[in-house]
Amino acid sequence: MIPNVNAVIYSALLLFSGLFSVPVFSQQPIHASALQCEYMADPIGIDAVQPRLSWKLKDNRKAAVQTAYRITVGTDSLALIKDDGTAVWDSGKISSSAQLTRYSGKVLEPFTKYYWQVQIWDKDGKPATFIPVSSFESGMQAMGNWKGTWISDNKDINKLPAPYFRKGFKTVKKIRSARAYIAAAGLYELYLNGGKVGNHRLDPMYTRFDRRNLYVSYDVTAQLKNGENAIGVLLGNGWYNHQSLAVWDFDKAPWRGRPTFCLDLRITYTDGSTELVVTDDTWKTDDSPIVFNSIYTAEHYDARKEQKGWNEVGFDDRKWRGVTLRAAPSNLIVSQVMHPIRNVEVIPVKSFKKFNDTTYVFDLGRNIAGVTEIKLKGDPGTRLSIKHGERLLPNGRLDLSNIDVYYRPKDQNDPFQTDIFILKGEGTEGFMAKFNYKGFQYIEVTSSKPVALNKESIVGHFMHSDVPVTGKIHSSNTLLNKLWSATNNSYLSNLFGYPTDCPQREKNGWTGDGHFAVETGLYNFDGITVYEKWLADHQDEQQPNGVLPDIIPTGGWGYGKSNGTDWTSTIAIIPWNIYLFYGDSHLLRSCYPNIKSYVDYVTQISPNGLTTWGRGDWVPVKSESPLEYTSSVYYYADAVILAKAAQLFGKKKDFEVYTALADKIKKAVNDKYLNRSEGIYGTGLQTELSVALLWGIVPEELRLTVAQRLADRVKADNMHLDVGVLGAKAILNALSENGQADIAYKLAVQDTYPSWGWWIVNGATTLYENWNIQAERDISLNHMMFGEIGGWFFKGLGGIMTDEKSPGFKNIRLMPNFVAGLDEFEATHEGPFGTIQSSWKRKGKKILYEVQIPANSSATIHFPVQPGQAAWMEGKKLTEIYQASAGKYTFEIQ
User: Fold this and answer.
1) Could you tell me which CATH number the domain at 342-465 has?
2) Could you tell me the pTM of the whole model?
């Protein structure tokens, strides 16, 4: 290995160049870049025994590949750079193009920072001269390493005010570093010396609290002081102690209890010694000004009850009460290693209307999930009701009728999506809910006394899991661009540590909505950490017989008669898609027993290969497809995924069993529902034809015939949709992947009812729950169940497709469609190997097609040439399929 003496200097130069936006080198040297541990950059709190390490190859040359790599891991960065032989793991030179591997060195010690680097060898067999250093830090590693005790305020579950907790402590030596580890059942905000720790919102993420709890790790070195310090914790109910009533029985969860937490603050001094500040019976507690909080409805805050300096040194807490010690809510406390929820974007008010001195309505101009922040002056005791909604009444006031339908209020003290803020009357005051979020575009503020508000009095905060953006599209069609943006807005509005259906009326992790939109999520965002967490929730919720509820997590609702294959196929479909997009089989392997148990249960209740277990094509336009047919198609899809996983993991017997099962289901479906002479399924509805094509039920010799029948049916339906959620997932893909891309495009950009575009031309900035904007029910205006179209743009127009023979976009299948009516289109996706670009534009009668393939990967390009057309590159005529290595290419379709 070449001594890495320049690594630190080089890393500093890269940082410098990033800060000042000027390149340090005209051409950066070849090196490993974007180093991640467990899909996070420089994470702390890693509990994995063998954490996953990944990187990208920075090499802009054509046909760039990585021929070998070497990973070294150590606890001393300088020793690692010098390569002095003290590494805890040295992989040695491995001849491989892999950019993902597992740590395989000495057992990781808890609470330890590890530095790691990747030496790569390029296509010429030459080693990189620059080797940037990254890090990860282990967390608890084992339950026995916790030293704190779970504490609470010993109040009843019906107690309304959120509790404060505090403790003073003293450091006596010079501090080198400090880490806070906090686990909670409920929600928390952590403070040190008066300042909030971190910028996360709604931590920890929602889990099945009696089976698994999450803890979060923070570097708090900069917030500690030499000498006296104070630590404070504010607890919220979250989903742990749900006090509001709704159809979904949140309040009946078997784990329900008063919020509780456990904290270890680990301080390391410069002399190498450590000190712990932990939760125990020396802490004190009192009520906070948050007099009510519900993750489902809203938050109420009485500023008159504030205790200034409650989380600071010197605060007089003699009147505060002692805490009570609690048992841990579960026997499994694991690290929350995922992209957190944050206030990601500030949305200013677009317009507002003053009705009188006590009534105002504000319009953000777009639908979001999150909270509002209000600042104003007013008399002491003035009570503000801050109501959030998606629609207005004809008189301009707020209308909640489309989103409060599942709420079952006990009384008038907890109005839906309505924060209550009581002023203390001291100058400009502000309020933003801490333990709640809402779905809204409009805010109505009413006050008990006159207040003066203006356009700047309120802002909206768009909150969601802060997943990195990985995809972008742009086209010459404005409607298409707006539809893609609306789809992403809905996806993010429904990502709060797990994918939800809507951010207002339910906030449920509906399984169907989750897998319908998984490709949209993965093309546009780096969502693996959220999906891995959610599939762990699936494992927590699965019954011993294999059955899953159709909302996950759940307090008990969802184990009914309709939680069948079309919804709970998440257990198979999502791990399979993670494998395809990331080339990482970890989640699929982890879920393999769960998929098997689930499929075996369906087989047990469906011995003839057909099943009626499911919800069907939910919210169709007008035509309803047979429940047995659609549920059986998803049963087939699950069996196919299970068989492929068995083959991948070398489970020969399982592979044979589940391949035979898939064949049996396919035959049963086709025997009953396929009219071979006509090439139609059932009565030839859009959903019936499209799901068969998408999931591979159609015999190969009839595939194009069935696709033609689908195109004919769309034309017969006047180029409009006649599908529910299952058809919406399938129809565009079924058309564009089987020679009918022009029809798919016309359907995608249709702008009259019923269509996605109909929402957009009527002002939508998110996706809706119903094709009919005036529907009396099922009409949330920020819903994700029709969201597959956001992924289809990348596939059906840009042609960026995964390759299961070479997953993780190691080999990219590029299958663009130069559809009539669209002049140009560009899609980019940041995959595990780097940026994939597929763009095309019309130039007279020619089409220019440009491609970017990341280093260390390849692409199989399928040109959709029509009769009389041909593909050319640099004057050379190409076949319809072209195999390309890394680099940028321009093709001309004549």
Assistant:
1) 2.60.120.260
2) 0.96
